[in-house]
Amino acid sequence: MRKGFHRLICGILIATSVLMPYAAQTQAAMIGSEQAIAAAQGAERAKVKAFLARADVQRQLAALGAPGAAERVNALTDDEARSLAERIDALPAGGDISVAAALLIVLILVLLVVLMDNRRR
Question: Residue 105: pLDDT above 70?
Answer without folding.
Answer: yes
